[in-house]
């Protein structure tokens, strides 16, 4: 005689926690599904840094805990795996790496706990990362300038678009037209 056991997992109400979508890559999309499984249809694709509220949780058949979430700035609701969420906050963490304002010879070098400004003259002293302000995933405010992470992709250049350069803004990289230059 063979005895077979099944483990059933039912969604459990979770106290509503703030959360943000998080991935390893700046600008990545996260699949939001209709049920807590990768086999369920995708109902939406969120962006790294999107703010949400958790509604309930369930153990998935893939071994992960899944959270049913609602996006704060939309009426979209669905399921996201726990490894793609940062629970308990709406603050987007500042990623390590290099940040630039645009095509100039200066930048910010950021570690987990500190950062320093550098330019043609060399490096300044390290400062506490708490003095940087996270604007969105891959964008920080330092002084009165927006700085974009070196891995944040630039916007797509459209065919026939005049020569341009990129500059970091509160929305990420944006194209700026070069004055006096024609296509």
Name some characteristics of this structure.
globular; single chain; six-stranded antiparallel β-sheet; disordered N terminus; mainly beta; 18 strands; eight-stranded antiparallel β-sheet; 183 residues
Shape: globular
Decide which structural class fits the backbone: mainly beta
Helix and strand string, N-terminal first?
Answer: EEEEEEEEEEEEEEEEEE
Distance between the termini: 79 Å
Q: Return Rg in Å.
A: 21 Å
Number of strands: 18
Extract low-pLDDT stretches.
2-14
Counting structural domains, the number is 2
Number of helices: 0
| Proportion of beta-strand residues | over 45%
Helicity range of the residues? under 10%
Can you summarize the main beta sheet? 8 strands, antiparallel
Mean pLDDT: 81
Please tell me about this protein's structure.
By secondary structure, the chain is an all-beta fold. It has 2 domains: 12-87, SH3 type barrels; 97-177, no CATH class. Helices cover 0% and strands 46% of the residues. The protein contains no helices and 18 strands. The chain has strands at residues 12-13, 18-21, 29-33, 42-47, 51-59, 65-71, 77-81, 85-87, 97-100, 107-110, 114-119, 122-123, 127-128, 133-136, 139-142, 145-149, 164-169, 172-177. Strands 9, 10, 11, 12, 13, 14, 15 and 16 form an 8-stranded antiparallel beta sheet that branches. Strands 1, 2, 5, 6, 7 and 8 form a 6-stranded antiparallel beta sheet that branches. The chain is globular, with a radius of gyration of 21 Å. Residues 2-14 have low confidence and may be disordered.
Briefly say what this structure is.
The chain is built from no helices and 18 strands. With 183 residues, it is mainly β.
